[in-house]
Amino acid sequence: MLLTLMLFFVPILLHKAPDAVIVQQESEVETCQVDITVIGLDEPVPLEEYVKGVVSAEMPVTFQDEALKAQAIAARTYALRLTEFGRKPIAADVSAQVFNTLEKRKERWGKDFKRNERKLTKLVNETAGETIVYENKMISAMFFSTSNGKTETAQNYGGNDIPYLQSVDSPGEDKVAPSFNKEKELTLAEWNAALGMQWNDEMFKSLKLVRNSTGRVQKVVSNNFDLKGREMREVLGLASTDFDIAYDLTNNIVLVKTVGYGHGVGMSQYGADVFAAEGWTAKQILEHYYSGTEIKNFTLLDSECLKSC
User: Fold this and answer.
1) Exposed, middle or buried, 61 (CB in 10 Å: 0-12/13-18/19+)?
2) 223-232 pLDDT per residue, tens
3) Would you say 256 and 184 are in contact if contact means Cβ atoms under 8 Å apart?
4) Which of 198, 184, 199 is nearest to 255 (CA)?
5) Where are the domains of the chain?
C-alpha cells in the first residue's frame, strides 16, 4: 500500500546593504582596491580574482558565456554586500559562496586548467566592477542550482517581501539539469530519527502538505506534528522543497521525490544557462531573475578609504 504525499522547502540569508557606498555608473572617481578576506586563507584576495574563484566553484565552466558572466556579476554583488565591501570576512563554502583557490582550480581541471582559466579570466574581466542594484543599492544576490520551473519568493522562503526576489518563470531546466529529479529512500527508523519522533501509519495517512504559489511546500502538518517546509528539507537532507512522499506500509520505507535543487530564491544557474543558449545576455538574465534591478558599476566612496588611496 502506498500513500503518496507532497512536501517542499527553501532557505535564504538577506543582509542590510552598507550605507557608506554609492553605486553609480561614473568611473572618473578614484577609489580604493577592494580585497576580499576569505576565511581559511592567509592573505586577502583581490575582488576580481575572488569572483573568478567563486564562478569556477559555483557554475560548470562548460556553461554558456553569458551564463558565466551573469554568475560573475551575482557573485561579485553578493560578496561586496555580505563583506561590506571587504570590511568583513566571508566563508568559502555553501554558507556563503563556494570559492576555489588557484591551486584547487588546477587540481580540479587538470590538463584543461590553462584553457578554462583563460576562459574565466576573460569573462570575469568583461564584467569587472559590475553589480546588481535595486533603487541604487546593491541587492542580496541569492542564487541556486535548479528550479522547478519557477523561482521562489523571499516572502515564502524567509517571511520578508523583497521586491527584487519575486517568483519568475525559469523554463527548460528539466531538459538539461542532471539533478532536476532526485529520489531519496529512508527506512522508517531513519525517518523517525531525522524528525525526532515516532511515526505510525495514522500519522502518514493524516499528513498534509500545504503548497504555495510556486509549487513548493510551505508547511507540513500531521497528528502532533507541525513543521515548515524549509525545515523539513533541512532535517531530511532533501534537494529542494518541492517534493513528494510515498510511504510503503508493508516494508516501512519512505520514498521522497524532489524537483529542482537548492533553495529556489534568486537566479537559477541552470535556468541562466538555458536562457543564455537562447541568446539572452547576462544583463537580460539577471534583470529577469532579480525583478526591477539594474546592472551598474560600483564606486566605493568611503572617506577613510579615499584618504589612503
Assistant:
1) middle
2) 989 999 999 9
3) yes
4) 184
5) 22-145+264-308
